[in-house]
Amino acid sequence: MAAYSGAVMTGAGAGAGAAIVPPKTLGEDIARRAIKIVDIGYVTVIYFFFAFALGVSLDRAIGPFDPAVADKKTTGRLAAECIAHIWLCGVVVYFTRNVVERVPFPLDGVAGFVHGKVKELTNAAVFTFVFMYYQKNLRDKLIYLGGSW
Predict the structure, then answer these.
(1) Concatenated DSSP letters for 88-146?
(2) So where are the chain's domains?
(3) Which of 59, 77, 103, 131 is spaced 20 to 30 Å from 20 by Cα?
């Protein structure tokens, strides 16, 4: 479906074998669009709270950055720690995205709306931004490294 024509996917899981069913009325098309807007907000809020909770938890688990301790480490060691931290953040983003995709939407199926087709469900941009914002240890370490080069 290259452009939105008001049609939705129906059938077995709205997958590859699903049929495209156009809206019967203008009211149904408006209802689908309104439900989609609500769904985008729903997914965004879920991503935000997961990001806040996981971001703060991971930052507390790693602990605060101490420049005095960093002075005793080599630049290579600090760079490796940053790379490991970024790798860990990527893994957390991946698993969280997979969890959020499985959170049910209460209006799924209403007026023919399919929750699984919302692009924001697999786009974890909000999660990634908020999650990385709360990685104070990583930020401070990168600033420290930037000043030493």
Answers:
(1) HHHHHHHHHHHHHHTS--TTTTGGG--GGG-GGGT--HHHHHHHHHT-HHHHHHHHHHH
(2) 25-148
(3) 103
